[in-house]
Design goal:
The protein has 14 helices and 22 strands. The protein has 522 residues and is of the alpha/beta class. The two termini are 34 Å apart.
Length: 522
């Protein structure tokens, strides 16, 4: 068996993701046996990094609502044989990171079993230490060790473990730990301190807030945080965990998901609606008037809140944020805007890097809803994002003001479009190049193409792909052509200030993409 291929096909940036439930079209690629080998390797790497004996390591394990969670957790526990394991049960990804920080838990590391918003048959592993999520290079090292361990223990062709595997790794030391209660208590304390209400212990009294947890792991947010603080949470939907996700995809970028929380907010007559993805590390909100606040608008709202206490701070975003957002941040709020790369880890690491270099960055956020604040260890936490907004709502209500006013002056693009071109395998007789090299050539060629076009100008500075400003008879806009971080694809984002303007921009670039017989529009 080629164990290395088995493990490295699961790497998705700094996370592990695979198919954990067999379906007719998608055979299982992530089993309990594979999880065991990965966790055994992680324990080795962690012990080396911390200079600790393996038996002294304290590692927490949590999971979202997926149907495969139990199998993967058993595998993780088997791999962690010989370490001190704390089973945190159903938990959010941010709470699992916080478990390495809280005095009550103080874990050396933690593992979250989740595949975020992906379909029910997927699952994965996210690893955390007190420094945050594993870097890609460290995960690569873990997977290399996992492949060696798989060979040593005799992982079978079905990717299961033979009986007695890891028996010589030490004794099993597992115990339950109620992490969610600890996380909720810390969140409640934060809200009380931020709002400073006359009724200190009930700062959300008089507010009606509904939650849509998408049947994921973060349904505790309503009864565990909002309700004890005095909020009315009636009308909340899909709080019960259900790994088949029967109501909608748990994803704040998904139109059906946002429509569901918008409907729930309006039907309840609530002041605010909150929605999370499956593992709770992404969030978005709906205002009382039904206005959806996600993507660029969410960044604008959070930046406005940051500007009140940290004027002039840098806001780091990913590469597909709009020109309108940049204008709002820089000219309306007086903030600095650094449009960086796609990938929440890229965005967050850039924020950390800026602060280390002496430049204040209070918020690093991707349009997907992954947002991290400096005052929260730069942990991407959908609950913390929501709490920032809820605290601001509570403070403004004390002054007779409305949250909606914070978005005054922010404009949305008139039209937007995202395309993806799949990079096909080469035909017989064609040059055998990998998809990354081919994609890099397409992006490089696009830069040359832009320079030849009337009405197109390369935008600088730019940190990913080629971004071009476009001016046509139908108006102004921009286009970004880049490589996917992980997939054999060329994503293309187009925005226009005018309704329908993206069609004209697409027409300008279609001849370029037609040159490449290995590109197929999805």
């Amino acid at each position: 068996m080629n164990y290395k291929d088995i493990f490295f096909r699961l790497q998705n940036g700094n996370d592990v993701r695979g198919i954990a439930v067999d379906t007719p079209d998608a055979p299982q690629t992530l089993t309990g046996g594979i999880a065991a080998c990965i966790c055994a390797a992680f324990a080795q790497v962690l012990a080396e990094q911390l200079g600790k004996d393996k038996k002294d390591l304290r590692i927490g394990i949590g999971h979202d609502s997926r149907v495969s969670a139990e199998e993967i957790q058993r595998g993780c526990c088997q791999g962690f044989t010989g370490t001190q394991v704390y089973l945190c049960g159903l938990a959010s990804t941010p709470s699992m990171f916080q478990s390495t920080v809280y005095e009550e838990s103080g874990f050396d590391a933690s593992v979250m079993i989740t595949a975020s918003h992906l379909p029910f048959n997927r699952n994965g592993l996210k690893f955390f230490t007190r420094e945050g999520g594993l870097e890609k290079a460290v995960l690569t090292k873990v997977l290399e060790k996992a492949a060696l361990i798989a060979g040593e223990v005799g992982l079978t062709d079905a990717c299961t473990l033979p009986e007695g595997a890891f028996a010589d790794a030490g004794e099993k030391m597992e115990q339950d730990f109620d992490l969610v209660s600890v996380y909720c208590a810390h969140m409640r304390d934060y809200v009380c301190a931020q709002v400073q209400a006359a009724d200190y212990a009930h700062p959300l009294a008089g507010l009606h807030i509904v939650l849509d947890a998408g049947n994921g792991a973060a349904g505790f947010f309503a009864p565990g945080i909002l309700e004890p603080l005095g909020a009315d949470v009636s009308g909340s939907v899909f709080l019960d965990p259900d790994g088949t996700f029967p109501n909608h995809v748990p994803n704040p970028e998904n139109a059906a998901a946002m429509d569901a929380i918008r409907k729930a907010t309006l039907e309840a007559g609530a002041d605010l609606g909150v929605i999370f993805d499956c593992d709770g590390d992404r969030g978005a909100v709906v205002l009382g008037d039904g206005r959806e606040v996600n993507r660029n608008r969410l960044i604008a709202l959070l930046a406005r809140i940051v500007s009140m206490t940290s004027p002039g701070s840098t806001i780091v975003t990913d590469s597909v944020t709009s020109d309108e957002l940049a204008d709002f941040l820089e000219n309306r709020l007086g903030m600095k805007h650094l449009r960086f790369k796609r990938g929440y880890k890229n965005v967050i690491n850039k924020g950390i890097e800026l602060n280390a270099a002496g430049e204040t960055c209070e918020l690093a956020i991707e349009t997907s809803g992954h947002g991290a604040f400096k005052d929260n260890y730069f942990s991407d936490d959908g609950a913390y994002i929501s709490i920032k907004i809820i605290c601001q709502l509570a403070r403004m209500r004390q002054q007779g003001q409305e949250l909606e006013s914070l978005l005054e002056g922010f404009e949305e693009p008139g039209d937007e479009m995202e395309l993806r071109f799949k990079i096909l395998d080469p035909q017989p007789g064609q040059e055998q190049s990998d998809f990354k090299a081919y994609g890099a050539r397409v992006v490089e060629d696009f830069a040359a193409f832009v320079k030849e076009q009337d009405g197109m100008t390369i935008v600088t500075p730019n940190y990913e792909g080629v971004r071009a400003g476009v001016e046509t008879k139908d108006g102004k806009g921009w286009i970004l052509v880049r490589q996917s971080l992980h997939d054999p694809e060329i994503p293309v984002n187009i925005e226009s200030k005018q309704k329908g303007g993206t069609t004209a921009i697409l027409a300008m670039v279609e001849p370029f993409f037609a040159r490449y017989d290995r590109l197929r529009r999805k």
